[in-house]
Structure formats: structure tokens, C-alpha cells
Predict the 3D structure of the following.
Amino acid sequence: MASRVSATAAPGLPRGVIITAAGGLVGLVLAMEIAARFHGFAGPVEHFAWDLVGGPKRGRVIWVAFAMSLISLNKQQRIRAVAAAVVLDLAFFLARLPFDTRLTYGNGPFIVLLAIGFVAWTRWEGEERTTALKAVGLGLMLIMGTKMSDTWLRFTVEARPMVLDQFVQTADHALGNPSWVVGRALDASGPLVHRIIETVYIELPVGAMLVAIWQLRKGWPSHHIVRSFLLVALIGPIFYLLFPVVGPIFAFGPLGHGFAVDAAAWPHSVPWDLTPHAFRFDDITPRNCMPSLHTAWTVLIFVHTRRQPWAIRAFGTFWTTCTIIATLGLGWHYGVDLVAGVVFALTIESILRDPERGWDTTRWGLVLGGFALHAAMLLSFRFLAVQMAEYRFLSAVLLLGSMAVMILAFYRAFFVRAMPVDTGSAEQDETLPSLAGT
């Protein structure tokens, strides 16, 4: 296994590439803001500013982003930063309480996060400055990423009034319609299990950032989960416009707002209709099912927690298991969404993992093959859904078999054929784990 690569040893991107990428990201944010205002709703910049001075929408995400910035500080600085964040958060909360019944929080850590970045930029130098700005930048990217996601989901509603759920549900017969099966099982498990599963699903960014904090606690490796997490968030939502799907609890369940095909179907009775067609849905529900990015992100959590201390491995396994159960059992996704999400996640991870090895034939094969397989799956769900339902066994073998081939190829490329050990460091690499660790 490769040894842990520090910030100074890790190969860096050319300055021009970094500036271009940063400029492109700023341009994308501004374009989304302008487009959102044109359509009459708040964009990512407005949401970002509101989280700073108003009632934050995702306080836990802000606190985790702030916690990630603390890895760049010494013990005394961390104590002062946490104390300031707590005091400010409490002050904002109490000041807002008479006017806002929502128990929101997060202003304090957001303000201190920006303050750390300002101090690092204006007063610190060298490695201390670089490390602090990296940590603050990742934290701010996480927060802005959630705002961009909210805006993009609204765009999916505006751009794609018609949804393809009937095609996906028909194709899902090949897998035995697992959302219906897991949904009934989860209903029978009781309120406590249901609440745990739901909480893990909602707090997926928190889970990923906890893994990131663990990976970054002793320095900056050449690859960590935040890079993969953000790239999935950047590319994945494009497919929502290409393949708009709302999910079984909406299209076939009680949250359909009068637009459901059969509001009483999920999770009690599986529809059997071999004449699928696109149909109009409401102007509220995001078209954010295909592929399942929750599955993609939790696959990254699983991969990045292998060959760690048992508690970290257990955390990754628990989070992944609960998220997969939730995606199906809460009615947010169909089974084929998850299969596509696994292939997509491993394709993205193949782009970023082991940057030291460069772009060899194996990496090119995984990336191009992964995207081709993902595209083939989406085309099959759209144009071969009836055939998949009629020939369920063959379709299941081809679908699950192709996913298994992708998993095996990824494992052999990045875990069996590991990078040479860096003799300059005695510490084991914690970001190049083995899937065999559970």
C-alpha cells in the first residue's frame, strides 16, 4: 500500500488549472443565481447569505464544515474558535427565537469559519496559511454545494414537468421491485428503526464530512473523500434533467399530490403495467432519482472507510447499510436507481483515486467503461423497460452482473494492484483502503 502523502509531498495541480477551475465554479454559481432569479426563486448566493445572517437551513452541515476547518488549527486556536462559534450561535438563536419558531442554528460556526479564512489570508504565512485556507475552502464548498443542490433541484422541476417513473418501475421488475419489499419491512420494524434510518439518510453530508475529518486529521493526503463527494455532486445532477424521475412514494404513493399513477400502490401492491409512458407531475417535487446519488455518496463513504480501525470500518458499514435501506424503504428510489448509483460512484472514484499513478490504461478503461455502462443502463431503463420486465431473470443477471464486473475491476485496479510504498514515510496510507477490511 502507498504511504500517506502529506500536503507538501502530494502532487499538486498546475496553478493555471486551479485558477481556471475556481473561475469556472464561480461562474457556475453566478449563472445559477441569475437563472434562479429569472425564474422567480432564490439562488445559491442568496441562500448562502441567508445562512450567514438568517435562519440556516442545514445547521448540522455548517457545524461539520466548521469542524473540518479546525484540523488546520492548534489546540488553543481550536478552543477559542469553538467557544466563539457556540457563543455566536446561541446569541443568534436567542435573538431569532421571538420571531422564528423554527429551531435553526449554524450562524456561529459559519461566521467563525469565515473569520478563520480571513485571518489565515491576511496574517498567516507558509504552510500554516496554506493548510488553513484549504480547510476553510473545503468547508465553504460543502456549504455552497448544498445551496447549489437546492437550486438545481428546483431547476429540474421547472425544466422537466414530465417524469419517467413508469419506465423505471417497469424495469425494476427485473430486481423484484425492492422498494416495495423493503418499504413493507421498514413499516413493520417500528418507529425507532424508522427514525434511525431516516436520520442517517438525511444527514449523509455529515457522515461524509466525519470521514473527511478522520482522513485529514494528520495532514493532507493526495486523495480524500471530499474530492470525490464534490465531483459526484457536480456531475450527477446533470442526469436528473436527462432522466427525470420522482420516486415510488411520489409516483405510486401518498406523496403524489394528486399526480400519482396510483397513490395507494406503494408499498403494498406492485403495479404491473407493460405500457409505460411519461406523465406530468407537480411543480414541487424534484426529479432527483436517476441515478441515486445518495447511493453513490454512501458507496464513497464505504470505500474510504476500509482498512481503518474497527470503529471507522463499523461506522462506514453502518452508514452505508442504513442509507441503502432508506433509499428503498422510505420510497425515495427504485432498485435500478441504486445499481446505476453504484456504477456512477465507482466511475467517479476511478477518476480521482491514486493520482500518483497517472492516467494509465487501467484508469482510462475504468472511467470510459464505467460511463459507458452507466449510459447503457439508463438507456435500457428508458427503452427496454418492458423487455426487462418480461425477461426478469436474464435482465437481473445482466444488470447485477455488469455492476459486479465494475466492482471487481475497481477492486483489482486500486486495491490488488496497489501503488508502491513510499519509503520516505512509515505511516500507513489511510486514504487508499482495501475493500477486504470489513
